[in-house]
Amino acid sequence: MGLRFKYNIVLFLTCLLGTAAATGISYFIVQKSAIEEIHRSINLIRANAIAVRSYTLNSITPLLSSDNDILFLPETVTAYAAHSVFSTFKKTFPQFNYKEAALNPTNPADLPDELETALIEKLREDQSLGQTSTIVENDKGRFLTVAFPLTIKQPGCLRCHSTPDAAPPAMVDLYGPDNGFGWKLGETIGAQIISAPMAIADRRAQETGIILIAGFSIVFLLVFIMTNLMLGRIVLRPVRRMSDVAEKVSMGDFSVPEYRKAGKDEISSLSVSFNRVRRSLERAMKMIDD
Ligand code: HEC
Asked: Where is the chain membrane-spanning (predicted)?
């Protein structure tokens, strides 16, 4: 196995390991920061929903709630307003999702699925949790889903969510007496569940990986070409010539011209020493012949 081959194998393995490690680490870091960005957009969606809720509660409900006893207007309900505003938002950003899920919801559309139930249960078990999140994979791709607890903090909520008798009759007519009642003050009855696509995070991590691999490959190619050129010129070619001369001299052929490598490096001083050895040998041989 030649010197060049050994050198190139070591160089190749080092570059391969270096590229793999750098790509792996950067993939991890980029994905982490992209996930943080997704978290930020989820927080924005939530802040917007809270703003819609508070606008409905403070500005719309007082205007229309007096009519609720005769004709119940779901538009006066904060959850309804948040959900309706989001459905308009979703037309522009279909990949995002917002749901106010409750274990015992007034509107059956707010029933949680299996995963949402698990998130709500987790928030109910640990009341100090401000949020809980998970990554969901389905046929549409990977999604980051974050659940924020919906806890009954205002006694006013219980007017419509404690017993059907306490609720506006028109509301009970519309939604029925079986769902969305029995909620307690301080109870976490459900969660605001928001999910956002991970595609941006995945794509960005992939792009960074490809850029890194391409960058490392160019650097590797340059290092490969330059060091091979240097290796040939500085080490291999002079060593090969010295070994040719040494071969002939060892067979008693002193007619080959001396080889002296120019410069002051180790190979040059080796060529000088070798010439000296060769001359001494030639002299000794002559003395024996005489
Ligand atoms: C005027 C009656 C009324 C009041 C007061 C009220 N809600 Fe509701 N709530 C409803 C109705 C009706 C729905 C179903 C809306 C729909 O069709 O989406 C609902 C839905 C919800 C939902 C979505 C889950 C579900 O049950 O479908 C949550 C969460 C919720 N309300 C929480 C609250 C909280 C918290 C308060 C107090 C700040 C409150 N509600 C006050 C009537 C009310």
From this structure: 210-231
With a 6 Å cutoff on the Cβ, whether 171 touches ligand 1 is: yes
pTM exceeds 0.85, yes or no = no
- Among residues 224, 89, 104, the alpha carbon closest in space to that of 161 is found at 104
Domain segments of the chain as ranges: 3-205, 206-289
Q: How far is the CA of 203 from the centre of ligand 1 (A)?
A: 38
Determine contact, residues 78/56, Cβ cutoff 8 Å. yes
Residue 175 CB–ligand 1 contact under 6 Å: yes
Mean pLDDT of 195-206: 85
SS3 248: helix
* Protein residue whose Cα sits closest to atom 10 of ligand 1: 77
Contacts of 141 (CB under 8 A, 6+ apart): 197, 198, 199, 202
Rounded to the nearest 5°, which phi and psi values hold at 236?
Answer: -65, -50
